[in-house]
Write a structure and sequence with these properties.
Elements lengths: L4 E8 L2 H10 L3 E6 L4 E6 L2 E7 L6 E5 L15 H10 L16 E6 L5 E6 L2
Amino acid sequence: MNLGAFSVSLNVKDIHVSKEFYENLGFQALGGDINQNWLIMKNENCIIGLFQGMFEKNILTFNPGWNQNAENLESFTDIREIQKQLKERGIKILTEADESTKGPAHFTIEDPDGNQILMDQHR
């Protein structure tokens, strides 16, 4: 099971203050739109998403189909196949991807400690 690119999506209070803080740690903007209160930042292979007012907790995020530069992978495990395998292993799916569709989709799970995990396929 290839989960794709990994990042941490952070719930931030002030996206401008957080952007400056992470820039001081060597992160640079990779994508997003600060005017819409979200920004993706990268430092080498480390990726964080800054999100103001979009969700309550920090989220672990996997993007099947992408590498750490948000570039399409030639071969990857489709989100619906990952979801199916996790269900077979007894993992509770909180929000499900529609298995009758193709292309972009997402689903969420939680680890045993209540940390939310987003599986988010963009293509």
